[in-house]
Amino acid sequence: MRIDLHTHTFFSDGELIPSELVRRAMVLNHTAIAITDHVDMTNMELIIPSIVKAAELKEDYITVIPGVELTHVPPSKIDEAVKRARKLGAEIIVVHGETIKEPVAPGTNLTSVKNPEIDILAHPGLITMEEADLAVSNGVILEISGRSGHNITNGHVAKMGLLVGAKMVVNSDTHAPDNLMDESAAMKVAIGAGLSEQEAKKAVNDVPYEKIKRYLK
User: Which CATH architecture has domain 2-215?
Assistant: First the structure.
C-alpha cells in the first residue's frame, strides 16, 4: 500500500496532466494519491475546480483526493486561504512550510500549526519544538519530504516530531514522473531521516491511511 498526499500537476509547476500522474502512481502500487497543486489567493478559483474534477479518475484508476498546497501565502492570510480552499472543494490542505531552500515568510510554520483545519505542514525546515508541539495539539501532520532540497532538513523534522509525539507522513512532493516513490523508496526516505523501521512504517502507511480512509473505494 502506498498513499501520497502531496503531488503536483501542470495546473501549477508539475510536468504531468492529472491522468498520467494518477496512472503512474497506480503502476507503483499506490492505493490513493492527493493532487495538491500550488495556490495562493490569486488562483484558487482557477485551479481547485479542475483538481476536484480530476478526482473523477478514481472511477477507472485509484482513489484521487483533491487538495492544494498553499504556497508563499503571507502568514496573516493563511487562515483565510484555508477557508476559501475548503469552500472550493479542497479536501487535503497542505501548507508550504519554511523550507531552507526557499525564502518562505517567517511565521508560516507557526501560523499553520495553530490551525486545526490544516492537514499537513510540508517540508517545515528548521521547525522548532514549540511549533512541533502545537502541531500535535491541533492535529497538523509534519511532512518528511522526498523532494530534493526540501529533504535536507528531514532529520531535524523527524527529531522534533519524535520528541513531541507528532504525526509524520512521507510524501513525494512530485513534480516530475521520476519523483513518485513506491513503498520501498518512501521507507528509505523515512529511515534516512532517522526513524526506526516501525516509526517509518507508521509514517509511510498508517498515518496517511488514517487521514484518508474515508475516501477509499
Answer: Alpha-Beta Barrel (3.20)
